[in-house]
Amino acid sequence: IKKIGILTSGGDAPGMNAAIRGVVRTALTEGLEVFGVYDGYLGLCEDKITKLERSSVSDIITRGGTFLGSARFPEFKDKAVRQKAIENLKKHQIDALVVIGGDGSYMGAMRLTEEGFPCIGLPGTIDNDIRGTDYTIGYFTALSTAVEAIDRLRDTCSSHHRISVIEIMGRDCGDLTLNAAVAGGCEFMIIPEMSYTKEDLIEEIKLGFAKGKKHAIVTVTEHMCDVNQLAADIEAAVHHETRATVLGHVQRGGSPVPYDRILGSRMGAYAVELLKLGHAGRCVGVQNGKLVHHDIIDAINNMKRPFDVDLYNTAKRLF
Ligand code: ATP
């Protein structure tokens, strides 16, 4: 291969820029040309494709987001739309494409590969919900942001003897909530992997106050419940002022923490190595500290994401 393309797709994540830089600089070192595709699969279809130089990725390692831009583009599920994308790639004589994104983006990469255009997927999402990797690029930055927010809410909860209900991102994955709860010393949590009832939660909170607690923090993964309603129900039952805070997109921004920069750099370099070795239709992961690659289809369809039950049980004992 001589020319590779790169795009970022789906929700942005801190560290995507480090991954782009990793791909671009490694490819140039290896004598390959690199083309940046702006705004994900949408830009691919609209031919927003530009040659990248070494200096195109200067000064981006510290920045959150993705300088290539990202997009939600559901039309990419349509084969005719993907054909247009492949035509554009061929027009620029691009031989392979690196896709950085979440599982939706992986589906697009898998389809392109099936239809004859080789792709490699890199896990870029704050949710840590991608199969075939222990960690995703962006997760540790989001975790740090969530913990900082919890710390701030703790200060004011403590002063006012208040209860705080905090909604944390993660889609259907509780990793961000569980780890933020443990790091933030939160008493109670609601995550998709463990069943709960509102009644039990309220009983636990009452018990906490009976034991002498002055405040309480409940962390909840998004989509699990309406946090404003939950706060109202807790306040009515426990008779302590209760406020809900949705951390929202704040968790997606900010300068990436060192681990995400390192992970992005390593995975970007690895993607180029894999392409040079002739691999396609693979997704990159880090497992037990080592870089690995799996078949994208197998990863999406058959692999399970392990849930850290031990950490959950530890968290419960700390409450
Ligand atoms: P995150 O989970 O962090 O938001 P994601 O990559 O899962 O990231 P999605 O919006 O699900 O985000 O997917 C990104 C894009 O990938 C979609 O907008 C669409 O262009 C493409 N895509 C998603 N699913 C498919 C599919 N089944 N076939 C082809 N392309 C797809």
Strand content: 15-25%
Strand order of the largest sheet: 3-2-1-4-5-10-11
Poorly predicted segments: none
Assign an overall shape. elongated
Order of helices and strands: EHEHEHEHEHEHEHEHEHEEHH
- Provide the helix percentage: 40-55%
Bound small molecules, by name, code or SMILES, are:
adenosine-5'-triphosphate
Question: How many helical stretches?
Answer: 11
Largest sheet: 7 strands, mixed
On the 0 to 100 scale, the average pLDDT is 96
Number of strands: 11
Q: Give the CA-CA distance, first to last residue.
A: 55 Å
Oligomer designation? single chain
**Structural class given helices, strands, pairing?**
alpha/beta
Rg over CA atoms, rounded to whole Å, is 22 Å
Could you describe the 3D structure shown?
This protein is α/β, with parallel strands linked by helices. The chain is built from eleven helices and eleven strands. Helix content is 43%, strand content 18%. Helix 7 (198-210) crosses helix 8 (227-238). The longest helix has 22 residues, at 139-160. The chain is elongated. The structure holds adenosine-5'-triphosphate.
Throw out a few tags for this protein.
binds adenosine-5'-triphosphate, alpha/beta, 43% helix, 7-stranded mixed beta sheet, 11 strands
Secondary-structure blueprint:
Blueprint lengths: L2 E6 L7 H14 L3 E5 L2 H6 L3 E4 L26 H13 L4 E6 L1 H12 L4 E5 L15 H22 L2 E6 L6 H9 L4 E3 L7 H13 L5 E6 L5 H12 L3 E5 L11 H19 L5 E6 L2 E6 H7 L6 H10 L1
Parallel strand pairs: 1-2, 1-4, 4-5, 5-10, 6-8, 6-9, 7-8
Antiparallel strand pairs: 2-3, 10-11
The structure holds adenosine-5'-triphosphate.
Adenosine-5'-triphosphate (ATP) binds next to helix 4.
